[in-house]
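Schema walkthrough. Field components (list of strings):
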Amino acid sequence: MHEKEILVKVEHLSKHFKVGRKLTLKAVDNVSFNIYKGETFGVVGESGCGKTTCGRTVLGMYEATKGRVIYEDKDIHSFSKNEKFDFKKKAQYIFQDPYASLDPRMTIGDIIAEGMDTHFSMSEKDRTDRINELLGVVGLNKEHGARFPHELSGGQRQRVGIARSLAVEPEFIVCDEPISALDVSIQAQVVNLLNQLKREMGLTYMFISHDLSMVKHISDRIAVMYLGAVAELAKAEEIYENSLHPYTQALISAIPIPDPHVGRSRQRIRLEGEVPSPINTPPGCKFVNRCPKAMPKCHEIEPVLQEVKPEHYVACHLFD
Ligand code: SF4
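Field assembly_structure (string):
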């Protein structure tokens, strides 16, 4: 990427859910970042950190509680009905569990064509040709089009999920843990396919994962989320080689290294304490009860995400 053009601008985005009458779950809490055209923007964090809610709110699948998501100079949360319809064609979502997201009563061909049927008017022949073309693009053959989801393997079903997203010729895809439900042997194939499609079609991805070691291989930049907020954001190599936030450092120290010499020399940082509940979080840093470097002010003042090196952002009082 030479000239960086912003495709999605997320500004102070929050998504809170009411739990009962008095409690609030802050799934996403005041998050800001840009996604550049043509990049893969990785979002990583433990289960419950808000990454899926963030991806869905960025796509308008959830209403934002606060903040804005600017796409082509307009906040997607203030789109008219027609604008929402157009945006659904430009921006797609690939689900974690391909089986749960495919209607078991529909053939694979009809599943792939769902978006096409909504957005394009095509002759029956063009529709069939396009389904066959998309099956080929994702490495399936046209016989698969007549089958039902239960007749396919997990990897094949995820390929159908990808073909369904591509059918409307999107520019931006939120990939929500697209390989975590697949066998390890199939994961690399699906990652390679996503990379290849990105190159060939000029796509932009927001790639959500709990697995930092995997996100590294696919992402240009990575945002590390903890309890609904971005703890650190930088280029993928920078996150791996020069992480600054104590939480990111702990996540990286837990990644197994295949080389036993390097593996022995690296110390694993063990995090004490449990991930706190995102319901009515106390003031101060969200990571304070597990942080080995916590200071008194960390209990009182919430750190804000700030640029501490060019294009390297961190939310931690150690860098104030
Ligand atoms: Fe740790 Fe304090 Fe930094 Fe939070 S702000 S990560 S508690 S040092």
